[in-house]
Design a protein that fits this description.
This is Neurofibromin. It comes from Calypte anna (Anna's hummingbird). The chain is mainly alpha-helical. The chain has one domain. The radius of gyration is 15 Å and the shape is globular.
Length: 76
Amino acid sequence: MMLNLVRYVRVLGNLVHAIQIKTKLCQLVEVMMERRDDLSFCQEMKFRNKMVEYLTDWVMGTSNQATDEDVKCLTR
């Protein structure tokens, strides 16, 4: 269920509310992984790898967009 939620939030974009939602979701993932002994994981490593992939997409997406905007400003 968490992966589905992260997958949905991944496409929200970079508006203020979307960034707030992404921040809260990252905090939730952090707390969840701190308490993973209390949770039942069927395939924890697969879950962790997918989570890292999705969260990396968020970070790379924002850094790529910022770079594109910087290039536009320089070429004007």
